[in-house]
Each structure stands twice: as C-alpha cells, then as structure tokens.
Amino acid sequence: MVVVGGGLIGCAIARKLALEGSRVVLLERSRPGDGASGAAAGMLAPQAEARGPSPLLALGLASREMYREWVGEVARASGIDPDYREEGLIRVALGRDEAAELEGILAWQRREGLPVKPLERRELEARVSGLGPEASSGLFFPRDHQVDPRRLNRALAAAAAVAGVQVRAGTPVLGLDVRAGAVSGVRIDAGVVRADLTVVAAGCWTGLLAAGAEGLLPPTPPVRGQMLALEPDELPGRTPVMAGCGYLVPRSSGRLLVGATMEDAGYRCEVTGAGTADLLQAARRLVPSLAQARVVAAWAGLRPGSPDGLPSIGPGPAPGLLVATGHLRNGVLLAPITARLVADLVAGRPPRLDPAPFAPGRHLQPSLPPAG
C-alpha cells in the first residue's frame, strides 16, 4: 500500500495499516509534520468549536474518546512525549452577542448530555489571570484537551517506522497512476510506485494530484492560518482560552500560542503584517498584559478545506483508491478516528461509526456515459 502525505492523518493511517499487517510505503513531499499539522495549535476541542449536533461533532467526540490510549501507544512506541494534557478548555464571551451564543451552546450541549460548565466573571478570573474587561461569562469544557502537534507528528512518524512503514521524506507525488480505470499507484520523479491500494492523505495538496485523473479526488482548497508564539513573563493559566476573536494555548515551555487566522490566500503560506496585527489584537482583548509579551515566533500553515466543512474519508470512485483529506482545522483531533475508519474499510470490518456523511463521492461529478 502507498499512503500519500506525512502529516498527522497520513502517519496515523500508515501506522495503523502496518500494525494490521499491511506493507506500507508513506510518501511525503518534504518532512513529516512540515505542513498544516506542524502549524496547528493542537486543541482537541470538538465541543468548544461545535455549533450544534452534526456528523463532524460525532466524529470529533469519537476521536477524543480514543485519544488518551492512542497517544500513549504512540509515545511508548516512539519514545517521544507528545505533551498531551487533559486540562479542559475555556470559551469566553466578549460582549453581548458572544454571551448569547454561549447560552445557546450551553443549552444544546446539555440536551445532548455533554459535559459543560457555565462560568461567571469571578470564576473566569480564578482560572485566567489578567483577563480583559470584555469577558463577561464563559463555558468550561472539561473533556476538551490539547497536544503538541509538532511533537505528535514526530512521534507518529517514528512509531510508523517502528511498525514497519517505509517512510520516504522529500518525495513529492506528481499524480495518480491510473490504468484500465483503476488506480495502480502514484507517479514520482523516479517513476511509478506501484500499489494495490493508494491512500491519499495529502491535505490541501490533494487537488494537485488530480492532473490527468480528473474526477477522482475531492476539492481541498487551501485555507491559510497564521499563528504567533508569545513569551510572557507569566502564563495567564494552564488551560487554553478561546473567544470569537481567537485563542490562547499555553505550552509547557512557557510560550503562549495565539491563533489563528482563516484566510483564502491560495498556496501562499506566509506571515503577513495584517495577520500578525489581528492576532496581537486578539491576545490583548483576551489578556491585556500580553501587549508587553515578547513575540518569539510567527508562522503560517495551509489547512485542507472542504466545500461543506466535512472531511472526505472513504473509497474513491476508482478501484485501488481511498481518500482521507479535507479535515480543515480538525486534523489533529481527528487523526485517531480517521486511521481507525480507513483500517476498518480496508479490512472490510463494520466501521466504528457511519462513514456515509464523509464519502468523497459527494464532491465528485458522476462519470457520464459516452454520447451515442
């Protein structure tokens, strides 16, 4: 088997398939984790980011349930600590509109039986030091957690290799190799890598592999996300904090991540003055003293978009092709469940949850019979 893409999704899939007995080659255009996975903040927040019950929420909750055991296995296999932390997540309301939105979130999540706790201003102040005056109320999601995605991607790539995956970094895939209506591998500079199954987990680069194989891969338009790392004299707390303007994610190193923009900028993966200004403003609104924090790093990543906001996970329209892409800003969270679903489909087992909402074919035009 060939897995295209060395981000968290690709590495998780390759490792899972190898553990189940498949011979797997993983092809990555640069280094594992150099793309959107390594640029992410690492919040595992299906509840805090959900707008209501949906297939995406169900997928996220199932993946979050797997995370502790899964990340522990990866850490033991690789010897790399991914800094997985179960400290919950706080969402604050900045202004009346956001306060009303949080009241709605509290209501529907309680109806769904999800753990969520409302916080008054004094309770917020006890959890987040130096909180700005706009923050009137909030919600605490005790089961939404965080992980360091850069560490996790290094750990996953190493664990995949331990499981027997042949990891080939610096190997761009030029396109699919299609013969007699079936996908028989992929094309690289050195020729063709043949495989009985090709799993495309190439993030926003998925669409670029479709040249000469139109109609086989779903659209994954890039969505740029810029982020900053600040180094304050003291962290405002250990718990990630988010609001409508952005979020703050503390790291064990003492740095504080500030994210993230959502921009339609094509494949321009660059930091801009406007993006940096927006992120600094968000940090100041949440914790005003962060205006004095040192800016120690800035970066950007290109998330794989999707026309309907849902990832594409499942068989492609041609034999020999399986797709796992379009996770947008949920790739870190959804890596365990995506790998499990792909392995279930490959093995012919009943999947852990219904993959129908994520079928890649929903974005593809059906082939028309020749005129005549």
List key phrases describing it.
single chain, about 375 residues, 19 strands, 8 helices, eight-stranded mixed sheet, globular, alpha/beta, six-stranded mixed sheet, disordered C terminus, about 25% strand
Task: Report on this structure.
The structure is a single chain. The strands form four sheets. An eight-stranded mixed β-sheet has the order 5-6-4-14-15-16-13-17, sandwiched between helices. The chain has a six-stranded mixed β-sheet with strand order 8-2-1-12-19-18, covered by helices on one side. It has a three-stranded antiparallel β-sheet with strand order 9-10-11, with no helix packed on it. With 372 residues, it is α/β, with parallel strands linked by helices. It has helices spanning 8-19, 36-39, 55-78, 96-111, 121-127, 149-162, 273-286, 331-347; strands at residues 2-4, 25-27, 43-44, 89-94, 117-120, 135-141, 145-146, 166-168, 173-179, 182-188, 191-194, 198-200, 222-231, 241-243, 246-250, 256-259, 294-304, 312-315, 321-325. The protein starts with a strand and ends in a 25-residue tail after the last helix. Strand 10 (182-188) and strand 11 (191-194) form a beta hairpin. The chain is globular and about 65 Å long. The relative contact order is 0.19. Residues 367-372 have low confidence and may be disordered.
